[in-house]
Amino acid sequence: MRNDLPGIIPETYLPAARILLVDDEPRIRDFISRALSGAGYAIDCADGGGEGLRLARAGGYDLVILDLVMPDIDGRQVLTELVAEQPEQAVLVLSCLADVASKVDCLELGARDYLTKPFSLAELLARVRVRLRGEPHQLSEPLRAGELVLDTGRLEANIGHGPVALTRLEFLLLRELMEHAGQSVAKEALLASVWGYDFDPGSNVVDVCVRRLRSKLGFDLIKTVRGEGYQLAS
């Protein structure tokens, strides 16, 4: 980890945001908690997966920063149980595991972001800011494209057969395609807009998310445009 900021700039637009940091390494906990506190966030810390899961279950956190490799309860298990119980809980995984498989696995389990150790403090703070910006449930107006209606308040889609619940990533991906109805959207553009940062272009997270949307809403809903990307069927 590198402290490459000349100083910590307080995030005055989100002074009350609450963050739970779950990491079994005292040095990293101290470093991150001091940096985030200096940026204006309220920080609670847990030194293992068990304590982290207990605190997270109590609710009230705007973001959970979660290590994967811990001696008591593995971070993947914490992520799985937490997202199952609280689907809208934002989780940023912070791990020494840098392989694509671990990243894809955690994102598909419901993590909003994945940052590897060693990390840049500037990048961590930027990722935190992105994760704490307007979440989908804060929107109210439904989005329509033909027969498809996307309920931005409930994270549900309806194509004429009743409402279907979506995960946050499914919602964001479908919203992006609906906002570009009639156009093909490149996989790289979907990675940047939905996952919020540049991701390995060889990753299949977009393809997996598209398959899940097709299985929920109909296999003809999203077209694959060879050499270009994906397009919402008209």
List keywords for this structure.
Rossmann fold; Arc Repressor Mutant, subunit A; 18% strand; 4-stranded antiparallel β-sheet; alpha/beta
What does it look like?
It is built from 8 helices and 11 strands. The chain is α/β, with parallel strands linked by helices and 234 residues long. The protein has 2 domains: 18-132, Rossmann fold (3-Layer(aba) Sandwich); 138-232, Arc Repressor Mutant, subunit A, CATH 1.10.10. The strands form 3 sheets. Strands 2-1-3-4-5 form a 5-stranded parallel beta sheet, sandwiched between helices. Helix 1 (26-38) links the parallel strand 1 and strand 2 (42-46). The model is unreliable at 2-15 (pLDDT under 50).
How are the secondary structure elements laid out?
Blueprint: E1 18-22, H1 26-38, E2 42-46, H2 49-57, E3 63-66, H3 75-85, E4 91-95, H4 100-109, E5 113-116, H5 121-132, E6 143-145, E7 148-151, E8 156-158, E9 164-165, H6 168-179, H7 187-194, H8 205-217, E10 222-225, E11 229-232
Parallel strand pairs: 1-2, 1-3, 3-4, 4-5
Antiparallel strand pairs: 6-7, 7-8, 8-9, 10-11
Helix pairs in contact: 2-3, 6-8
